[in-house]
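1st attempt posting a full record on here, be nice pls
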Amino acid sequence: MNAYSNLKIFHHADALDAIARGEHRAPYYIRLKPTNVCNHHCAYCTYGSGGTRQRTENRDAIDHRDSIPWPKLQEILTDMGAMGVKAVTFSGGGEPLCYPEITDAAALAEAQGIELSLITNGQLLAGARAEAFRQAKWVRVSFDSPVRATYARLRGLPESAFDAVTRNIASFAKAKDKDCVFGVNFVVSKANAAEVYEAARLLRELGCDNVKFAAVVENTPRYHADIKDSVIEQIHRAQADFAKDGFAIINNYENDWMDKNFHAQPFDVCYTCRLVTVIAADQRVYLCHTRAYDSDAIVGDLHGESFRDLWFSEATRERLRTLRPRTDCKNFCVYQERNQLIAAYYDVDMRHVNFI
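the predicted structure (as tokens):
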């Protein structure tokens, strides 16, 4: 079963049909970034967290000191529940487990009937914080080397951090609810390209449910050309050797190593941003998580308005209705395939729909 499938959206055909009728509904899913504060300094971070200044060019509005005040986050989560939002992921921005009230935020989301998930670097995934997410639908750790020295160098940390994170991974894998899918996202770069196979081995031993290998996004042309064959071979070998007994290896790298398009999108309408949105640590709502902290992608500002009022305002309806990805979105789009699939769904000639 593919947890990352772009086809999940078609299990919400009622929402797609509502969009086709011109209805404006609450988002199904929200990426919530409670804080931009981070305890890691990853060299490849697209947010430039920890002062690495490696953020992607479109993120021109990020302040690494920002956090959503706890009373405001309570209001947002309560609004989400009242609106019928189905799921939330606490993510960065920074490291969500650095947010002081993160355990209370997780409990409030669950109390609102919202399905819970977490993206974390894993260093604080222990104690009460780990317990707060034990019954989440999924938890994903960003982890990028099975070698202490490489891990520490990529993240600007002492090597002891590697021991803390691997210890937390093993502990959480044992303590989590059986229905919580516990995975790792491994971003492949030249610094760790030789360590892919061993990473799969280690993560299986630590008790993870899966590891997803993805390509680092680089503006440098043909960045992956010299490493891609070796990386792909390692992933295939790891799948043959380790993908068993409930452990999955997800190969996103093989179809994702090519140079990214930062100039235009090959589709006319973004349907996904009407179903998925982002609330960031600066208390602004953005079109999508790849355009979070992009001043040209702000949907609205929550400093003086509730999320519920903002989302259902005519201004938001018009913002989403008039977005033109071919000209407005200059960034790589993680929703490209999904938007193209939805467009194909709408393009079906209903006169022949039964001739399947």
